[in-house]
Amino acid sequence: MSPKIKEAIAVLNKAGYVTSLWHISDVQNNYVCTISEAELILEEVLSCEHTTQIINEAIDYEAEQKELECQE
Question: How far apart are CA 69 and CA 15, in angstroms?
Answer without folding.
Answer: 24
